[in-house]
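Worked Example 4.2. Consider the chain below.
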Amino acid sequence: MSTTIIAIGAAIAVLGGALVGFGISMATGKAVDAIARQPEAGGQIRTALILGGALAEATAVYGLVASILIIFMLK
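Applying the procedure from the previous section yields the following structure tokens:
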């Protein structure tokens, strides 16, 4: 395989991590807005936010592992 194809594959995998960061920041902003509107629901909102953030971060870690595998194993 050529190094260009490997670099493109790794870049696409890393792009997933960047998009996850954007998604988590959007979710955090919406959660803060929701807690500001209904403070009594803060516990439930916080729990859902943490669970969603953990799942999103897991997706970012999978993308990182995939990019590392693409870079080092396909040479």
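The mean pLDDT is 85. The helical segments are 3-37, 42-73. Compare this with Example 4.1 before moving on.
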